Amino acid sequence: VEDVAGLADCVDGSLDVAEGLSNGDTVTFHWNCDADTAQQDHNAILAPADATFTVEGLDEWVTALSQIGQPDWDTLESEGKAALQQRESDSAIQADCLGGYMLVRQDFSSEMVDTHNILYVAYKVQAQLPGGSSLTYCAAIGFSDLVLHGDGSVEVTGDRGFAAYGNIDVPANGTYYNFTGFETLEDMNAECITRYEGMYSVESNVAEA
To answer: How far is CA 57 from CA 10, 23, 82, 117, in A?
Structure first.
């Protein structure tokens, strides 16, 4: 073909869907070629077939715990533990991860809330109190608006390191010590799951250690 540019003018096409796509969607490219001109002017025969592709590699909101790879999970778990230790700085604490709660926004009718998802990393915490006594309780540290990138990595784009609200007052040596957490796993489940029902779907793999 001598006139490549002229032949290129005979070739055109379009996608059946070009907007609002998500990973896993399928799109079809439909050719729209001027086969007569291509043959008459360029001695070329055009007979392309439509091609269907699966969309992949787009950034999207995290919707399941399984989308968070182990390296990213380890980072979030460590960051949550550091947030706990900073919050309870008056006590030497040990925090063991119990799993996570993945909350995915279902109802966007309220304009006051625009959070797409929340991950709570759950811990079983042991705090050392004055006088040799100790306290074991449950706590959860939250991260919001997690994005799954096309390369499989996860990024927190919203708030991070906030605690699920729970309050424990413990007397020791004539004074009270306050901890942000829950006396039982059932109490933490109620805070991290029940209160969000209707607005969020909730997935949990939290289990008692």
So the answer is: 31, 7, 32, 20
